[in-house]
Amino acid sequence: MQGHEVATRLRYRLTLASGMLECLCFAGVVFGFASLMFVLKEDGYFSELCTTVPGTNDTGTDCSKQDEQFSLVFTIASFLNNFLNLVNGYLFDRFGTMVTRLLGIGLYTTGTLLVAFSSEAFSELLFPALSCIAVGGILLLLTNMQVGNLFAAHRSTIITLYNGAFDSSSTVFLIFKLLYEQGISLRTSFLVLSFCSIIHLLRTFLLMPRTHIPYPLPQYYTYGPSCGQGNTYNVEQFERIREGAMAASQESSGRDSIPLAPEDGTEAQDSGKVASFRSCVLSWFFLWHLVWLSVMQLRHYLFIGTLNPMLNRLADYDSSLVSQYINAFAMTQLCGVLCAPWNGLIMDRHKGKPLAPGETEWEADLRSSSLSLFLTSLQCLLFSVCASVPLLPLQYLTFVLQVLNRSFLYGGNAAFINIAFPACHFGKLYGMVMSISAVFSLLQYPCFALVKGALGGDPFYVDIALTLLTLLVFIHPVYVFIHCRKLAQQREESAQTGTKMAEAKL
Predict the structure, then answer these.
(1) How far apart are the two ends of the chain, measured CA to CA in Å?
(2) Which end of the chain is more exposed for a tag (fewer CB within 10 A), N or C?
């Protein structure tokens, strides 16, 4: 049995490391669109939308329609990346890891092949291509986040690390841009990316479970080939056991086991029953978390989608200077994988420390998450302020704040859902919050059209409006903090009541 345990631990570590590489090199490449857009412009994609504008001394070229078309490509891809997560989450919860990953790999490969065989004459292929890459990549991330369940003491750290790697994978398109400048065509780069799908298939069958990884992890749990010597489990079964134990321990103190809407506050107490999906969606935690994610995501999407024309305007259309700033932006994206674990360490900082008297592990996790939510909100505010200032050198600081905030945002989003709600609903809740926030993110396109039209290319007033809107995100960490304080007060009151009853008996 000892040899089997060693082999199982080795498999855990290989799963962790290979998942890290998968997220870092493939999953979120679509968010390097600013670098890809530079290459696509050089290759003449949508160039027929550029018009000649006669001037007093010479004639110029107006490519605002071309920029608008590229922005639409990114808007649709980023929208589907999130909106289809509701379907993705259901597929993951219903059919398990293998089916979900095979679907994601198929979409991802289709998208890379479409880009590889697109051209100036078939520029419209970018619409389905980028969308397939985006949806396929998020499916790979979704199936990888459960790997954190294999390492209970570092679960939030691993989830945020994977999300940081997802953000950093946007650097892949920078590499494509640099290779293009060295004479390697975009078609060659995307064909290589397509062939790498063989790696994803091998990992699916060798290093990932067929269904789900349960939490808490049972003894001798294993998966993959030759797993007959270990034990495989159903995640819903173990979630019911855990929730039942929590409910039993909390009936005496009168505390709810998970955050629920007022009208559903007793549902989870019924014979240790896991809280329903409906009660989780109707909770205040879910509502404020949705607002928190939607507002910040809109700010990031609009920034990425308008980065190229914004830099062109600030650099007086100096293409070499714009290329320099695009490269700097793409290089900072690589730092996402370094920034994200900080958020996980903040959320896991209480692990290994004794709990307060009467405090549950769930309450400690929730209390720890409030600081992470607040720091993420503060980062977004600072990033939005810097992005609003029309000063070109300041954009270097904007790039740093953007990647720091983005790595905290998506890692913290997944980690909070994992902490606050039952694991059996993780896929559906994660999918729903991403889907609804995707609908909200569609506002980026009318904002872009407003800047290009009525505002004459100057996004200053839109940036100011978004900065003011960002203040709403501070409601979420404040609400979580107040909720945790109320739980602590209830524990103190319960302890005092128990002491008085004991003294009365004496």
Answers:
(1) 53
(2) C
Return the closest-CA partner of residue 189 out of 201, 172, 202. 172
pLDDT of 256 strictly over 90: no
Please give the Cα distance from 62 to 256 (Å, whole number).
60
DSSP letter, residue 30: G
237: pLDDT strictly greater than 60: no
Please tell me whether residue 221 adopts helix, strand or coil conformation: strand
Question: Which of 265-285 are b and which e, b meaning 16 or more Cβ less than 10 Å from the residue's Cβ?
Answer: eebbbeebebbebebbbebeb
- Which candidate, 75, 147, 112, 95, places its Cα nearest to that of 301? 75
Cα-Cα-Cα-Cα torsion 30, 34, 35, 36, nearest 10 degrees, comes to: 60
> 186-199: per-residue pLDDT in tens?
999 999 999 999 99
pLDDT in tens, 63-82: 878 888 998 898 899 888 88
Q: What pTM does this model have?
A: 0.73
Count of residues in the chain: 506
Token pair belonging to 86: 């509701």
DSSP secondary structure letter of residue 215: S
Distance CA 493, CA 434 (A): 39
Q: Encoding tokens for residue 91?
A: 């597929």
For residue 52, what are the β-bridge partners?
Answer: 61
Distances, alpha carbon 71 to alpha carbons 38, 40, 303, 390, 458, in Å = 12, 13, 11, 20, 16
Calculate the alpha carbon distances from 113 to 33, 126, 132, 189 in Å: 17, 11, 10, 10
Which of these ranges, 17-31, 64-78, 130-144, has the smallest mean pLDDT?
A: 64-78
Token pair 């050198």 is found at: 393
Helix boundaries (H) for 221-283:
235-250, 277-281
Please report the DSSP string for 44-99 in residue order. Answer: TTTGGG-EEEE-SSSEEEE-HHHHHHHHHHHHHHHHHHHHTHHHHHHHHHHH-HHH
Q: How far apart are CA 119 and CA 116, in angstroms?
A: 8
